[in-house]
Amino acid sequence: MNTQDPRDALCADATKLARSKAAVIGRSVTRLEDGPLVRGEGSFAADVNFPHQLHMRVVRSQIAHGHIIAINIEEARVQPGVVAVWTHADVADVPPIPFRATTVQGLEPYCQPILARDRVRYVGEPIAVIFATDPYQAEDAADMVRT
Amino acid sequence: MNPRDIVLRINGAEYPIRVQPRRTLVDAIRDDCGQTGTHIGCEHGVCGACTVLLDGAPVRSCLMFAVQAEGCEVRTVEGLACAGQLNHLQQSFVEHHALQCGFCTPGFLMLATGLLEQNRDISNEDLLDALSSNLCRCTGYKNILAAVEAARNALAVEPSA
């Protein structure tokens, strides 16, 4: 039979909690992640590599607003190291980029597609993507996309 | 273009590597030498995330070719801690909450290291001017400045290294 009064245990827990709160509330707390980050030992997305990975280069709009009449990717597609070149037609089934942090309804028709469809609306809008075995070759091929 | 065989000296260690002449120094440091503490942000010299010291001077390693660094002493964030212990500057960044995500931090640390080594009495005004060449997108700059100022003050009461 347990002889300990459960009220004592609750009381002890409350004291412990108060102590632990006193240790952090109202004062700066040293972050656990800072050590590795100031040593250059953080692991960011670009630090993660896999065998046979491909490198993607985005071809972007150089004008602020315009109709897309044609995208010629034939020359880019045959560059050394290039595995694939995609434009909107290749990713038409991917849902557009949703609006964040809004409860407004009815914005769906105005969402941005992941690659520009028919029209570009800002400098830098993605028009096409190149996948290549080497990032430098992907960049070379990106220069070959004609719009 | 034919690849070139070069030796990069990073934090005192030698890395014999074979690179295309157009390969940037930062790509060579990260991918050929495996020192991923140096980060690539903008790739065109604006953000300073890739800052390393080249013979003591802060440079943007995305704006240099690896072949240009042959024969130079490259220092990166991995070389700052001494025998496993954070140095004054690193410790100061931790204490002043001068980082959040930590992506820009290696660039700021190397820039500040170069500045403090060139002039241990650098004024707050000159620090602000020099540190404004690097970008941070989360914490803001006040704590970074405070951290470097504190490290400078701590170094001032110590004999020269």
Ordered list of secondary-structure elements with their pairings:
The complex is a heterodimer of chains A (147) and B (161).
Chain A: H1 6-24, H2 34-38, E1 55-60, E2 66-67, H3 74-77, E3 82-86, E4 119-120, E5 126-132, H4 135-142
Antiparallel strand pairs in A: 1-5, 2-4, 3-5
Chain B: E1 4-10, E2 13-19, H1 25-32, E3 51-54, E4 57-60, E5 73-75, H2 88-95, H3 105-118, H4 124-131, H5 142-156
Parallel strand pairs in B: 1-5
Antiparallel strand pairs in B: 1-2, 3-4, 3-5
Helix pairs in contact in B: 2-5
Shape-level CATH architecture of the largest domain in chain A: Alpha-Beta Complex
End-to-end CA span of chain A: 83 Å
Provide the number of structural domains of chain A.
Answer: 2
Instruction: Write the element-wise H/E pattern of chain A from the N-terminal end onward.
Output: HHEEHEEEH
Helix content of chain A: 10-25%
Q: What is the class of the largest domain in chain B in the CATH system?
A: Alpha Beta
Rg from alpha-carbon coordinates of chain B? 16 Å
Strand content of chain A: 5-15%
Q: Structural class per helix/strand content of chain B?
A: alpha+beta
What does this entry look like structurally?
- The complex is a heterodimer of chains A (147) and B (161).
- Chain A has 147 residues and is of the alpha+beta class.
- Chain A has four helices and five strands; from the N terminus they run ααββαβββα.
- In chain A, strands 1-5-3 form a three-stranded antiparallel β-sheet, covered by helices on one side. A two-stranded antiparallel sheet of chain A has the order 2-4.
- Chain A is elongated and about 80 Å long.
- With 161 residues, chain B is α+β, with helices and mostly antiparallel strands.
- Chain B folds into two domains: 4-79, Beta-grasp domain (Ubiquitin-like (UB roll)); 88-156, DNA polymerase, domain 1 (Orthogonal Bundle).
- In chain B, 33% of the residues lie in helices and 16% in strands.
- In chain B, strands 2-1-5-3-4 form a five-stranded mixed β-sheet, with helices on both faces.
- In chain B, helix 2 packs across helix 5 (142-156).
- The A-B interface holds A 28, 30-31, 33-35, 37-44, 46-47, 135-136 and B 20, 22-23, 27, 30, 35-40, 76-78, 80-81, 86, 90, 93-95, 97, 99, 102-103, 105-106, 109.
